[in-house]
Sequence to fold (600 residues):
Amino acid sequence: MTETGTTGNIAQEELQTSGETKAELLARPEGMLAEFANPAELLHAAEKLRDAGYKRFDCHSPFPIHGMDEAMGLAPSFLGWVVAAMGITGGSLGLIMQWWMSTIDYPLVISGKPYFSYQAYVPVTFELTILLAAFGAVFGMFIINRLPRYHHPVFHSDRFAKVTDDGFFVSVLRGSKKFNVEKTKQFLESIGGKNVEVLRGY
Amino acid sequence: MQLNSQTYRLSDTGKVGTMALAVGVIGIVGCAAGFYVDRTHFFHAYLVAFVFWVTLGLGGLFFTMLHHLVGADWSVVVRRISECLMITLPLMAILFIPIALGMHELYHWSHAGVADHDVLLKAKAPWLNTGWFFIRAGIYFSIWSVLAWMLYNASIKQDLSYDESRAQTMQRISAPGMLVFALSITFASYDWLMSLDPHWYSTIFGVYVFAGSFLAVLSFLAVIALSLRTQGVLADTIRLGHYADLGKLIFGFTVFWAYIAFSQYFLIWYGNIPEETIWYQHRWDGSWKYVSLFLAAGHFLVPFVVLITREAKRNLFVLRAAAIWVLFMHWIDLYWLVLPNMPHAEGAAGVHFSWIDAAAMLAVGGVFFWFFWQRFTANAIVPVSDPRLEVSIRYTNA
Fold:
């Protein structure tokens, strides 16, 4: 649903560069998780986190919730531009490929028509436009969401398994300027969060 | 213009209905003049105008049935507009009479004795003969009128008191209704438009007419709703999310129309069989070439480019301009289907727009709109008792 950052990889990187022991790194809080009762509460919690200035938080729900992008203060995705660029690329490549094949590489008169019969090129041009646009949409989404990834701090929580069934969660990740275990915990509880827990690697 | 917040009926609508009727009367006078000046052109212009408005009625019927069939929430707020469009279909049966009277001017195959010297017309005679043509027209209008009347009536009754069984009835009518609608619009377009050139045939022709019809009705819904909005009517009911959805559908069906139009052209171009290509040749003769190019650009490229962004679909000014443009192009499309088949003097090939074309559009359009408006103001302008109305109003489509 949103950028969740690279928190999962920070520990790995820091293990190699910093002098801290593995145990110290594992004990460090990677984020916080709070549970909400229903989609409406989750939506309102997102609005309050947005208004309070939290940047690196995400909402997790079993199904998409209308208005969540706005509630979280997400900027419009630039995925559309990726799709448009890929679509134009696919269409141009399709057209150029057919033009090159039929007029330069292997010119062949087909049913008395000119070598460059653009009408005949429309289906392939169209299909390649769609194909590359679809690739742009799927793989662009993967890249923007930094997928695939092996780990995410929310997996430290046992309660989080509910998210595929009836759980509505907010996660706030370390790295946000406002992240502070005590204050964030208080804030999450003040906006109605239940079972607030600290996400740690051990 | 006032909207009663209790009954959701329009009052103080001013002279909208009267003006529409006046426009219709002016158009009818123009048509009468056109009939005496150039009878052949009049009947062709009238056919274009008749099909233009009947496809709006059919589009309304399709939109309403689709709404019931899929159990849509968002479209409840515009349902009454589409219902009032479809209830014009019984009226359109009366407006079919001039076509029946002028069929010898329009349809070459209806001339006595032509089939004797024409092997194709002889083979097609069991279908293309005047008696069976009239019976078929009667069947089409019966199907459409019965469907429209049953759905309209059930929806109006629903306003008084909601009854779940009535909603189910409308859904049950819509399922088989969709099937007979598909068949009837296909054969009606074969009869009224494709048989203008009785030697030519295209199996995709019905889908082509349907694509234009649905595109036109989506645009009409947007134009009507936005016009009401400028009067402050339903401004909080038909909201940005609904317009964005209409914009998406207009955009999508612009592509659908182009897909179908190109599919028809593509196969005929590839096959290159004279009896098929002649139809496109007629539309490439003289200045018709520019109408053909204008159709491809104006019916596909312009709405495609204008409506492609999210911002454009959510900009009500852009959406309204695009919708009016699409309606104009729908008329050009039908003009392009009909007029090249009009008999003309040797060497006079080419498009000749005439005041008779405008008069016919005003005549049928004025009467159509008067009847539509009369139905629209007679009841609540949204289905007030539908439990999904509130869901529809809350629809934000973020």
